[in-house]
Amino acid sequence: MVDDNSLEEVTEAHKRWSNKVESQLNKRPERKDAFHNTSEIPLKRVYTPVEMANFDYLRELGFPGEYPFTRGVQPTMYRGRFWTMRQYAGFASAEDTNKRYRFLLEQGQTGLSVAFDLPTQIGYDSDHPLAQGEVGKVGVAIDSVKDMETLFDQIPLGKVSTSMTINAPAAVLLAMYLAVAEGQGISSKDLRGTIQNDILKEYSARGTYIFPPKPSMRIITDIFSFCYKEVPQWNTISISGYHIREAGSTAVQEVAFTLADGISYVEAALDAGLNIDEFGPRLSFFFNAHLDFLEEVAKFRAARKLWANIMKERFNAKDPRSLMMRFHTQTAGCTLTAKQPKNNIVRVAFQALSAVLGGTQSLHTNSMDEAFALPSEEAVQVALRTQQLIAHESGVVDTVDPLGGSYYIEELTREIVERSQEYIAKIDELGGAPSAIEKGYIQKEIQDSAYRYQREIEKDERIVVGVNRFQIEEKPPKGLLKVDPAVRVSQIEKLKRLKEERDNEKVKGSLAKLKQGAEGDDNLMPLIVDAVKAYATLGEICDTLREVFGEYQPVGTIG
Amino acid sequence: MESKRKIRVLAAKPGLDGHDRGIKVIANALMDAGMEVVYTGLRQSPEQIVETAIQEDADVIALSILSGAHDFLFPRIMELLKEKNVDDILVIGGGIIPEEDIPSLKEIGIAQIFGPGTYTADIVRYIENNLKR
Measured between alpha carbons, how far is B3 from A476 in angstroms, rounded to an integer? Predict the structure, then answer.
């Protein structure tokens, strides 16, 4: 970045300055003997052109909207359009959640993000014995396409983009969405949105798996291939580091494990005979925005660069859109504290800012009360306002990648790329992400980092404001959202009514065809769409697939 | 209890919740403190948890739940323990549990609830001081 002459001068001056500082450390010591970030990257006192001596601007950074996309996937980034402000929401019944969506859209939110309850995420209807106590708790309960119609009542699906956090049964919920859109008279070609559909991180970090890896990967590639033809603007997967980080990983592990999962999906799709430039442009990602502000900014840039490189060099993708890592970001839920919850507003603001400086395409900001319960309306409004403040008041959006070229940010970005590459090489050696998960390797790495983080807090090496320093006496918060347990009762009644009113022969027929398809190698999506339209329930469809595919048995990793 | 026998803890995840960072960190800390820990893994029914606790001769059941289903699952576990006439296992819980729910959980016999931000060292101390046998 600097010519050789001045580099020599800077190196000399740097030595002189370092000697001077070192000699004064006795009198003026630093706070710690050594500094490092969450990824254990040692941090220098100051970064200078010396570290950047071999830095090739065009190769490392280039220009926004061009390979390797380090500076952003679009040429004008937020000068053109802000990120999508997309608050993850869902609770109780479809009626309750529909009200919350309409509130959020009135408040200026620009996309929807559906949180489903756990029975829905694991493919059980609300009347299943294992659903007791869980219906409507962490998200909305969806049993059939009728609930889905209520969920999107008076919301124009041709205009809004919808992200759905759904993995093992993603095909079923996507089919329901298509059916609702058809009912609103909207062509599937005009629909925009995302299904998470990332089963690998369910095995390693999030826990809502149903089927074993092999049939799960088949369902995913069936979705890729179906959507290429039928729902071309849909993001067919959101390869997620978010939950890996929430489970305790470092920033480097988040990038490495997510991209290793990404590599496995690409390989599965290629094995299924798909063309890289047909499904590549529809792959999307999802990252966490954690506490270490500059490490996070560098992480987003590093992930983008690394993915572009993998798609180009490893998979030989040609379409520039296949090389672009587009991602959603959510601030780190695990950093919210139950103590002095208003402090969470500030944490979230810094985390959100790091995502924006890292070039995110969409963003969820957590609410201050989420260490206690799902967010109240008041808390979610502050969270959304935080994004609007960054967009309209902070000024950081008016130039592309404003931190690009900072000696420190560029050095951190390079370190994160290199350390992630080392992990990916290790996972390749283990036979790829599914096999590394099968061996418990990824889970163990995450778990060790989580334990180290907690020990640092307990030894006061890591300060959490309000928790291990600056504590006060306080009263428990008021006005938390509480889900009425009666939701389960009303869902069960709805299910009963549905089963009386629908054409049960038609349901049986569609499920029999689905079973046959699953036993063979037909694309499952059209069969699931037919079953959904015949009013087969989510549980019935997933049970049909369970019969053929079996269920995943997790590996133990404790001890 | 024999003086040399290690404290045996069943770390359990009732319900469908997949958040296991907390329970795994606690399991690690309890092991480092010299306890024997059996971790159930995810998606355990109350019946499975009670059965495993009896089989493993657990002194402690440590329940973790972040989905909000504690209001159904915790009472169900306590009911089953009562049915089996088990009253000498210390049952503790943690996760995302609103303050206002805690009194009723204590009433049914959950000895203590540990929320976000709890030190593992405090949980170790609590267990050591409150064993029922």
Answer: 40
The A residues from 469 to 508 touching B (CB cutoff 8 Å) are: 476-477, 480, 482-483, 485
What is the least distance, in Å, from the CA of A413 to any CA of chain B? 27
Average pLDDT of the residues of chain A? 96
- The half-sphere exposure of A420 on its side-chain side, counting CA atoms within 13 A, is 32
Hey, how many other C-beta atoms are within 10 angstroms of the C-beta on A393?
9
Secondary structure in 3-state letters for chain B: CCCCCCCEEEEECECCCCCCHHHHHHHHHHHHCCCEEEECCCCECHHHHHHHHHHCCCCEEEEEECCCCHHHHHHHHHHHHHHCCCCCCEEEEEECCCHHHHHHHHHCCCCEEECCCCCHHHHHHHHHHHCCC
pLDDT tens, position by position, A102-146: 999 999 888 899 999 999 999 999 999 999 999 999 999 999 999
Does residue B36 sit at the A interface (CB-CB below 8 Å)?
A: no
What span, in angstroms and rounded, lies between the C-alpha atoms of A74 and A274? Answer: 26
- Give the C-alpha distances (Å, rounded to integers) separating A71 from A94, A227, A298, A304: 40, 29, 11, 9
Q: Note the CATH number of domain B8-130.
A: 3.40.50.280
Give kind and range of the element (H or E) at residue A509: helix A504-519
CB B64 within 8 A of CB B12: yes
The dihedrals phi and psi of A216, each to the nearest 5 degrees, come to -60, -45
pLDDT of A485 above 90: no
Order of strands, sheet of A112-115, starting from the edge strand that comes earlier in the sequence? A88-89, A112-115, A162-165, A193-195, A234-235
What domains does chain A contain, in order, with CATH numbers? 4-57 (no CATH), 68-458 (3.20.20.240)
Q: 181-210 in A: which are within 8 Å (CB) of B?
A: 202, 206-208
Cβ separation A451–B25 shorter than 8 A: yes
How far out from the chain centre does Cα B64 lie? 7
Nearest-CA distance A487 → chain B (Å) = 13
- The 3-state DSSP class for residue A498 equals helix
Contacts 24+ apart (CB under 8 A), B56-59: B56/B8, B56/B10, B57/B8, B58/B8, B58/B9, B58/B10, B58/B89, B59/B1, B59/B7, B59/B8, B59/B9, B59/B89, B59/B90, B59/B131, B59/B132, B59/B133
Token output for A387: 């994004």
Sheet containing A283-289: order of strands: A84-85, A362-364, A327-331, A283-289, A237-240
Helix (H, G, I), strand (E, B) or coil at A150: helix
**pLDDT more than 70, % of chain A:** 99
The ipTM of this complex is: 0.94
Q: Which of A120, A113, A118, A115 is CA-nearest to residue A144? A: A120
List chain B domain ranges: 8-130
Pair A412, A294: CB distance under 8 Å: yes
Token pair of A512, please? 């029999």
> What would the mean pLDDT of B62-79 be, rounded to a whole number?
96
Greatest Cα pair distance, chain A, in angstroms, is 86
Report residue A328: phi and psi, to 5°.
-95, 150
Which of A247, A339, A476 faces B21 most closely, judged by CB atoms?
A: A247
Report the distance separating Cα A276 and Cα A425, nearest Å.
22
Among B20, B35, B38, pick the best mutation site for testing chain A contact (most A Cβ within 10 A).
B20
In the predicted structure, residue A394 carries a pLDDT above the cut 80: yes
